[in-house]
Amino acid sequence: MSSNFGTLFKISTFGESHCAAVGVVVDGVPPRMSLCEEDIQQQLDRRRPGGNKLGTERNEADQVKILSGVENGLTLGSPIGMLVNNKDQRPGDYGSMSQIPRPSHADYTYRAKYGIHASSGGGRSSARETIGRVAAGAIAEKYLLETYAIEIVAWVSSVGAHDADVDMITVTRGEVDASDVRCPDAVAAERMTGEIIAARAEKDSVGGVITCVCRNLPVGLGEPVFDRLEAKLAHAMLSLPATKGFEIGSGFSGARMRGSAHNDPFVQKGERLGTVTNRSGGVQGGITNGEPVYFRVAFKPPATIGQEQRTVDYAGQETILAAKGRHDPCVVPRAVPIVEAMAALVLADLVLIQKMRC
pTM to 2 decimals? Predict the structure, then answer.
């Protein structure tokens, strides 16, 4: 779907990169939950453009306005509408590119599918659409934390060839946000920052990987066989702009191991069974087993770069494109709260489904 996500905890986002506003409608939020705009603004501030030297020069305040579903600081159980105005849009930056599909961008495919495409920015394919996801995810996360003490923390684990070493059991958002690149490994963060600055200086871009851990999950979340937890997470993460890969637990490295080395032996942990290792990533048979769920999402280098590129226009005529506009040389620092938001939306939905069953 172009706008909808979720089964019981459902969202519908709207808006394009350079229209008047973007936003979201959230349905399925339990009633009588305390909620105010500040609860949502914290995550939007982490996602917003113009925050530091590593991102786009577009400067948006991204102030959220709750339009419905909340009264006197409590949710009503009815749909919650939220709006964020676009204020620093510059559609004129895209005039010279309107007849040239940007290499590796969505311009051509959107035009081929719909017969029309937003004349400025990425339109609906722009990461600006994710504002609605982050706003909705902040509500989902608040519900999960207050009801089940579930914690969700994501961080930049690689940029280009630079990898971080992070303890996913103890890492906090405060540690993640201590650097502009959102990597809690100080040595790796410095190298990642240098890589992004170098890419920007060369009018180029660079990709990276975000790792996310979800802690304190109850056993039993996930709906086999088609709505397994890892399947829902993969759907959520690969619906994000610029994503090109998803792996959970040991991921692709597990394919190189033998079962005797990869298996997670069971032990007694308090009142429940647990595992000695967690190569399964907290999921077995598509259902949470009580261990932390962790996964990684790969983001490609942003498609829009300032270097001249040989390409063709929509008429098939050869041309040279040097893209204009304001774009991130690397999306992963700003994508951290977006990954957290999508994880929260998946988990809140599965929690409500499990509660309905019980």
Answer: 0.95
